[in-house]
Amino acid sequence: MTRDATGTVLVVDDEEMVVTSIESFLQLETSHRVLCYTSTGAALRSLEETRPDVVVADFMMPDMDGITFLKEIREARPRTTRVLLTGYADKGNAIRAINEVGLYQYLEKPWDNEHLKLVIQNAVERARLLRDLEGRMEALEEANSELSDLRRRLIETFL
Amino acid sequence: MQETGTVASGMAGPGGGAIARGGGAILLLVGGIGLLARGIEAGFALPAGAVAAGVGAVWLALEWGLALRRARSEASASERLRTERSRLRSEKDGLEQAYRELRSQQADLVNSARLATLGSLVAGIAHELDTPLGSLRSNHDTLRRAMSKLQVILEDERVDESELDEVRRIVRALDGVMDTNDLAMDRMIGLVGSLRTFGRPDSSERDRVDLHEALDDTVRLLEHRLGEGVRLETSYGRLPRVECHPAEVNQVFMNLLLNASQALEGPGEIEIRTAARDDTVEIEVRDTGKGIPEEHLDRIFEPGFSTRGSRMGMGLGLLITHQIVDRHGGQIEVESEVGEGTSFTVSLPVSLPASADEGG
User: Inter-chain contact B172–A27, Cβ cutoff 8 Å?
Assistant: First the structure.
């Protein structure tokens, strides 16, 4: 089993049975930390304490649709990878919305576990790479400002 | 003489009298001519009598000519009548044919509207099945994977502590899987149960049903079609069981709810209210949608009337609804205000009239 990249996965669906099934599967097959919510409000509040790498959200939810929810996630946590879960009947609408807001992936219900694992693994990996990249950028910026500082001092010393 | 014979043989009844008269005139004319000839022979022995006979003969000949003309014009009138009658007959045949075709086209349209309702029903079922089926499928896969992991561990002669930890982890992961499976199966069994009234093969079957159950089943199958921000409220009174054709009554509820959901453009509210009044029950479906203009209110139960474009099968939902309610000896009323919303109220007798079995 590949348990290389470990991340935090947030799963949101108004159906208890869906989040329980995904949670059980991910716990068995991966070493990700899995957080499950059946309301978008509670999920958004949880962002104050956690930085999920991946958010999986259902498309049709009574309090807020998945697209709007994932938009809010993007605003709060821009580097989180967002995945939409859609029922077969809503596929057309979901795909249109995905193209509009640019999501990473969508999963169709009834989903295939192997596919779910792959998507989540890739999404975690993507989030990790983004974080890495950001870290390196920060380090570069820091080095750059140190260098400018040094250059300024050098110029000051010799002139 | 020959000409007269030809005319006579070509004549039908109405000219007969005129011919007889014409024949008499000819005889007199011949007689007159005979007398005249004899008068000439006799050296004008009886000139006055011959003149009188001649005048009589000429008068009779004129009479005969007029009769012949009259007979001819009567004959042509009757000919015209005959042509007109056959033209009318063929026109009537044409109209009857057109009527039959229209009837069959209307039946086709009603069928396609039924199919459109069926389409909504099927979409509802598909959506309702997605969740429990998705869960069951995932859980089944999870259980199989867990089983094969456990088998691998148990293949060893000895199970060490780290493997025991793994077993504990696996069992922990499965926590909740069985309960979820129970829930998923119950959900699917319930769904099939609610379809039973919709899917009766014999829609003429009558039954005493709890209309609230029927309404809830319909709502469940349509709920996913309600857009974002649409609230559905129910306010049920105490209803007796109502004798009806359940499949048809479900179709009425489905049509009214579909109509209400289509009337809402964006957020809004749909309210279902029921009440019992003497020997009837009332079911009201009210929406806060765009409303129906007054000039359209009289036409909404007409075939093909729709404000939602001319898609096949559209605009027949209310016609079918009206027909079904009619067959049940009930009534349907509509109140609407543009910008405020629309309310449809169906009243059904608690007991089905005997004639209602002929429908379906």
Answer: yes
Name B286's bridge partners: B271, B343
Closest CA to B32 of B56, B48, B59: B56
Angstrom CA distances, A112 to A46, A87, A119, B173, B359, stand at: 27, 13, 11, 18, 47
DSSP state of A112: P
Contacts of A111 in chain B (CB under 8 A): 134, 137-138
User: B258: Cβ–Cβ under 8 A, 6 or more apart, which residues?
Assistant: B117, B120, B222, B225, B317
pLDDT over threshold 90, residue B61: no
- The pLDDT value recorded for residue B18 is 45
B300-344 confidence digits (pLDDT tens):
877 666 655 433 334 567 888 888 899 899 999 999 999 899 999
Indicate the pLDDT class of residue B146, thresholds 50, 70 and 90. very high
Residue A73 distance to chain B (closest CA, Å): 19
**CA-to-CA distance for B6 and B100, rounded, in angstroms?**
47
Q: Give residue-wise pLDDT tens across range A23-59.
A: 999 999 999 999 999 999 999 999 999 999 999 999 8
Residue whose structure tokens are 């982890």: B169
In sequence order, what are the residues at sequence separation of 6 or more whose Cβ sits closer than 8 angstroms to the Cβ of residue A120?
A: A9, A26, A30, A32, A54, A56, A83
CA distance A139 to chain B (A): 39
pLDDT band at B245 (very low <50, low <70, confident <90, very high): confident
Angle between helices A113-158 and B47-155 (to 10 degrees): 70
- Look over chain B and give the mean of its residue pLDDT values, rounded to a whole number: 80
**Chain B residue numbers touching A87 (CB-CB < 8 A):** 126-127, 130-131, 224
The pTM assigned to this predicted structure is 0.62
pLDDT at B37: 57
Cβ neighbourhood burial of B81 (10 Å; 0-12, 13-18, 19+): exposed
Q: Cα-flanking dihedrals φ and ψ of residue A30, to 5°?
A: -135, 170
Do residues B286 and B342 touch, judged by C-beta distance below 8 A? yes
Q: What residues in chain A have per-residue pLDDT under 70?
A: 1-5, 88-89
Q: Which residues of B touch A24 (CB under 8 A)?
A: 138-139, 142, 173-177, 180
Q: Determine whether the interchain pair A24/B139 forms a contact, defined as Cβ–Cβ distance below 8 Å.
A: yes
Distance from CA of A58 to the nearest CA of B (A): 11
- For residue B136, what is the nearest residue in chain A, using CA coordinates? A21
* Nearest residue of B to residue A22, measured between CA atoms: B138
The continuous run of DSSP H or E covering B246 comes out as: helix B246-263
Residue A84 in contact with residue A70, Cβ under 8 Å?
Answer: yes
Do residues B249 and B209 lie in contact, with contact meaning Cβ atoms separated by under 8 Å?
yes
